[in-house]
Amino acid sequence: MRADSAKSFGEAIRRRRKELGYTQTFLSQTCGVSVSFLSDLENGKETAELGKSLYLASLLGLDVMLEARG
Prior knowledge:
By secondary structure, this protein is mainly α.
């Protein structure tokens, strides 16, 4: 999946979390972030911290790759 916005990144995080059978509460406790942060991230709120977002993606087994356009 291509994540080219905060919304699509959040959707990818939510999809993977659900694939793994994790609740927001379980994942937030495991990762040391608040449920509200995770909810904001999954809902595409653009103020979510990048470092925490990348950490969560990594813990869910997702790679975040940046590629030059064109």
